[in-house]
## 1
Amino acid sequence: MKLPFARRTARTRQALFRPVDRENLRWLWTRYLRTRAPWLLLVLLLIAGQGLVYQQFLSLTENGLRVIFEEGAVTQLARVCVLVFVLFVLRGVLSYVTPRLTAWLAANAVLAIRKDLIAHLLTLDLSWFERTTTGEIILRLVNQAEGMARFIGQSTANAVRDAVTIVIVSGYLIWKAPVLFTVAIVVIPVIVLVMQFVSHRIKAIQTRAQAALGDYMTDIEEMSNGMRTVKIAGQEDRERDRLFAASTGIRDLAVRLQATQALAMPSIDMVSAFVFVLVIGGGGYMVISPEYAFDAADLITFLLGLVILFDPLRLLAGYFAQLQSSMILLDGLRSLLRETPTIADRPGATDRFDPAGDIRLEGVGFAYDPEHSLFDDLDMVMPGGRTTAIVGATGSGKTTVLSLMTRLYETQAGRVTIDGIDIRDIRVRALRDAFSVVAQDIVIFNASIWENIRYVRPDATDAEIRAAAEAAEIAELMDRRGDAPLGPKGSQLSGGQKQRIAIARAFLRQAPIVLLDEATSALDQRTEEKVQTALRRLGQGRTTIMVAHRLSSVVGADHIYVMDAGRIIEEGPHEALMAAEGLYAAMFRSQKQSYG
Ligand SMILES: Nc1ncnc2c1ncn2[C@@H]1O[C@H](COP(=O)(O)OP(=O)(O)OP(=O)(O)O)[C@@H](O)[C@H]1O
């Protein structure tokens, strides 16, 4: 019978503070709190002051009672009353100053945590962002950081205050009546067991509650981003039901969490009632019995002491219950910081390379998902200063080639070189500075066209921005809209207008290598022709790599690669490919027939 119980206790005891919790707390302390140690010490002193106020109060009350019971001098009674009043004013002052100080300390610590999280987040690989939902990110940066502020600040300060009060008042009671106090604390093991049970459950519920909240935020983000599709497909009801279900899930978990946390306090209440019965009985007997030097004033003071202990004990129990939730939040924050970027500067990485040199893919192997490789042994050469085009069926890997060159993804075999230098030996910042990219997924911020173009080169002059806008055929719209923001994600612009902003950015950036991924696909034929001419001008003397479905736009390229399912199936200049009568020639003819 004994063994299973012992095992169970060992397991639950481990659950109260898991090794990871201890490690996380140590991290929180060394990284964010230790430097603030002098302030924390001051807080502790203020808190200890509050605890001492209670002890003094008890001692004064005892004196006051003696005056009443024994001597009956009114002046002495008045003195006691004044002192009690002064004590409570002092406590009032302390309980105003302490939270102000703790709130300030906590807010600063959380600001430091938030800054670290944001800075770390921006170092993570693109692939991490493609795996992680927006909800999970917001959850950490907003909710969990906020929760940490509460944990570090007010709740911990209060808990320390309560603990100090308990220690000081208990110390006083032990000194006054050790036997009676021993009777009172026999119930402590019961409290410990209840707390272990509660904390174990809270951790499990809080983990699920955090996941549910993250999913809910992701659902909201998806719904609001996809509103156009939702409305056209008439799926408002479905979205509503999805969000209702997610909200209901959160409600259920919140109720369960509160219910479990709330278990802590009534358990203390029940136990306290038992303690009072013991103390009134035992203490009363001691007063009545002549064997003990224990009078009515002693008993009343002791009972008052217990009453004073009662509230901090309840609050402390509540705090321990909350602490378990905070451990889950802390681990959530920590888990983000534990993510390490794989694409980072190698030791000794260089800034020195000639971006105008040839770009080569040598025996490149790559897979997004380990089960399905996309490239097995891919070789490509994009000569410096020339225009290379990559064409082929959708999903054949064209955009991925560009992603590997800019190190948004890392090759898993072989290497990519620029001017003969492995791009992994080049500093990531220096490598990316060498590229201007007009990608398929154009990011437009909710600012003016002007500001949107400037984004890629904040130090550009007004004249440079205007020239870029003119080259991209967007200057007229830019003037017309003035400072008006473009709506979230540029929702007030057409696809072609967004594309022209992206092209203007490429003009403004003036980087030595230009990557154009379906750069003009959304433009009408006349605008496309104008922009293409401008792009040819931009590409002069620069290495240009263009991905296009519309083959008419790659006719002028120096070299064309035709891709299929991650392999190069044909290559050469337009004329040679036409003469070869292969896939390219067939595609070109069929497009010519369709578009004229
Ligand atoms: N981030 C990603 N995670 C997982 N798989 C991806 C990712 N990006 C692309 N893929 C897959 O890799 C393959 C190649 O994609 P890629 O975007 O390179 O093709 P593409 O030739 O540029 O296509 P398109 O002409 O349609 O733009 C596709 O099968 C695609 O589903």
## 2
Amino acid sequence: MNSITLHHVIPKFFIPKTLDNSQSIWKKVSTFKKGHFYIIIAPSGSGKSTLANAVLGNHFEYEGSILYDNLDLKSLSIEQIVNYRKNEVQLLFQDIRLINDLTIRENIALRVFNKKNDLFETKLLAYAQHLGISHLLEKKAKNCSYGERQRAAIVRSLIHPAEFLIYDECFSHLDVENKEKAFQLINKVAIEEGSAVLFFELNDFPFSHDYNQLNL
Ligand SMILES: Nc1ncnc2c1ncn2[C@@H]1O[C@H](COP(=O)(O)OP(=O)(O)OP(=O)(O)O)[C@@H](O)[C@H]1O
């Protein structure tokens, strides 16, 4: 998939306060392209999770359309949408969604549970080390802090990355140093893979970057 386009999208269940803001992407045409990098900055309650979940095909509670290349998401079957999640589009949900009773290693490996490949193990170890969670790999997720689980979820998102990587406030529990490390890792993997990255954030990152900035 080469692009995801928002075509006059506006949520059905609330009217965004920022609708009249000329920077806002509601009710406009915006295209996210493979290999490009975006940060969408918007205040609490402005619809970041609503839009991120809509782009994943988790709900259709909006007017307008979301296109995967030229295909309207609303015209796809559940099976087709699920297939897109294997290699084309993936979302790291704001609430992380690790399984409490599995270890951090098992949670990360879930992304590739039916694929045997030494490369995944190499990546898992390298990325865990980069984010400072190597010592937590055999620990159950429920016994880790929120920030530790957030870093584990970021590793999970990168061991078999899709073409469009979407992150909904994925650094919310990280200190500035860890935020920057996580950002650099996501950026590096996305460049290597040719993926697009879409960050949904409350505020801009506290370090310099050259991502395209959009607002809701
Ligand atoms: N299923 C739903 N039905 C009705 N209203 C909803 C539903 N889901 C979200 N909302 C409302 O839509 C608005 C946007 O919510 P959303 O979670 O998308 O915002 P957000 O920008 O991600 O916020 P935050 O930064 O606080 O996580 C909120 O006012 C929320 O209460």
